[in-house]
Design goal:
This protein is mainly α. The chain has one domain. The chain is 85% helix and 0% strand.
Length: 110
């Protein structure tokens, strides 16, 4: 799952650097990282329980609440701790990584 985290972070930084809104960049990075994790887990590490389309759909439905919670944490770190976007992204990534890992084990592995 670290490849997805790396893709999430790098895409976030690139999007910020080219002037994309940081909240939009947060979500795009999250989506790209989630897709990368899904593909890597399906084809290299675990035997999938569902077909690819169903797996993708379920992943976004179940991880959607995690993404929204992560975005809330991102917002809180920026506004209440007065941190920069990158630090806030890293803090929210640590929390969402743990929850997504638990979701993947509980719902998707055979």
């Amino acid at each position: 799952m670290t490849c997805g985290v790396f893709i999430d972070l790098i895409s976030f930084v690139i999007l910020i650097k080219i002037g994309i809104n940081h909240y939009f960049s947060y979500m795009i990075g999250y989506i790209l990282g989630t897709i990368a994790n899904l593909i890597l887990l399906r084809y290299f590490f675990h035997k999938p329980r569902f077909k690819l389309f169903n797996d993708l759909l379920l992943t976004f439905v179940l991880n959607g609440s995690t993404a929204i919670a992560g975005l809330g944490l991102y917002w809180a770190v920026i506004n209440f701790i007065l941190s920069d976007e990158l630090t806030a992204k890293l803090a929210s990534m640590m929390v969402t990584f743990i929850f997504n890992y638990i979701i993947r084990i509980v719902f998707f592995q055979k």
